[in-house]
């Protein structure tokens, strides 16, 4: 059978003839390709062919989903590991040339429709005999991520669409995450649109040690570049982002008079004003309040919130409750002990200090909240109160409350992106967390108010499924735990079988990027960071060695005592 000429109209690097269509596959979008061994097309590779759609030739992209040997040397030729199969074959006089053939299964993704700005399925499989090429590098750079291809930029002098002409390198607001894993390093760079994941939220999910915080670091670097100048807030429960300060003054991040600011806040300057708490927050930190106590607290708290002053404390609240329920009310008495223990004696809470939101967030500023010395509950409390204030301040900006002379609340006029390490701690699937409510609100409503969240976690099954399912872009790295794989399957829409199959085999730094920021899920190698990674494991043996040498160089306590007065022998210390 003569092969059908289906040369794609696009030119460019990486385009090589790989084989021919043998026939349809199992599913309605699947077909089988036969290819000789030396082409070595890997699973996950993007291949292309051309078909006429409504009178115009379209370059259709398909993904190789499986590869198996269709014909090779008989197994008896491989029996002795010391003799090459070719030697056995030639001794027996069997020709080995072109004996290997591979059978590839491929799934049609579609042709890029410049009108719809995404893939469109031609609903027609390539005919047997159609020739297939690996898709050109430039074409993949332009159409795999959801960047929107301008039809004019893609049209060549003859008026036909040539997607390899589109150059995304110089486009603004893109995050260069890395490159397509199946191609050579940097052959197909993957740039994801920051606007997209900053609006519809992001999840970075992987087992521990697979590169989550490294990848988050890469994305933050990209967001702080001169063509983005993001307003970032990082909730860092382990103190892993100390090295982001290297962005300050680094030429890579500077331009047009801009340099990113990187600010660190610790618990000392992250105090929470008591009046910022709502009654639900307080209930969540009190020890087992009875129904009657909850009722008293609710009445007292509401009265305090109606007051003009925002600087009241536990004593004022107790006075208020005694006024309402009587001096000798036993429930107020029981509440007093609990309120003093959980709020008044916790340094986190204060009556007056309140970090102004303008000090905390600004365009071109990455603020890291270092919370590693705080308890989990205090970390959640800080997140709750800050997120609520920030959300209200964004709401006020979007609703033009700033133009109302009587409005005296806080207002933030630029979009925000808040990133959570240990996301399951702040939005847990089970158990109480005061921060869960506001995180659900922001993930479901934040898009309209320019407030994006990024959730990083090594336990997807432990994240609230509502929050996880609202994260429109997913970066998924190595995950072996079946429960976590199931959580991804259930809540991540874009995670098809192909994505899930990849997860156990990934190595650190390899990731599947899927969802709103992509037109189709893609396997990438995450690029190296410009700043150092701040969360490497501690190299125990070299540090033991160093510490031991230092210890030997220092005089022992007994020797030191000896040198001090000349009277001690050291032995005296032991007596
Ligand atoms: N893209 C990459 N390029 C080079 N090295 C990487 C890359 N991604 C990860 N690594 C290396 O892999 C190791 C683990 O990365 P990382 O600390 O980000 O993992 P993690 O998933 O955040 O782990 P944990 O859950 O323990 O915080 C680090 O030593 C890091 O240097």
UniProtKB/TrEMBL annotation:
<dbReference type="Pfam" id="PF01935">
    <property type="entry name" value="DUF87"/>
</dbReference>
<dbReference type="InterPro" id="IPR027417">
    <property type="entry name" value="P-loop_NTPase"/>
</dbReference>
<feature type="region of interest" description="Disordered">
    <location>
        <begin position="1"/>
        <end position="24"/>
    </location>
</feature>
<feature type="compositionally biased region" description="Gly residues">
    <location>
        <begin position="10"/>
        <end position="24"/>
    </location>
</feature>
<feature type="region of interest" description="Disordered">
    <location>
        <begin position="530"/>
        <end position="575"/>
    </location>
</feature>
<comment type="similarity">
    <text>Belongs to the HerA family.</text>
</comment>
<dbReference type="InterPro" id="IPR008571">
    <property type="entry name" value="HerA-like"/>
</dbReference>
<protein>
    <submittedName>
        <fullName>ATP-binding protein</fullName>
    </submittedName>
</protein>
<keyword id="KW-0547">Nucleotide-binding</keyword>
<dbReference type="GO" id="GO:0043139">
    <property type="term" value="F:5'-3' DNA helicase activity"/>
</dbReference>
<dbReference type="InterPro" id="IPR002789">
    <property type="entry name" value="HerA_central"/>
</dbReference>
<dbReference type="GO" id="GO:0043138">
    <property type="term" value="F:3'-5' DNA helicase activity"/>
</dbReference>
<keyword id="KW-0067">ATP-binding</keyword>
<dbReference type="GO" id="GO:0005524">
    <property type="term" value="F:ATP binding"/>
</dbReference>
<feature type="domain" description="Helicase HerA central">
    <location>
        <begin position="176"/>
        <end position="390"/>
    </location>
</feature>
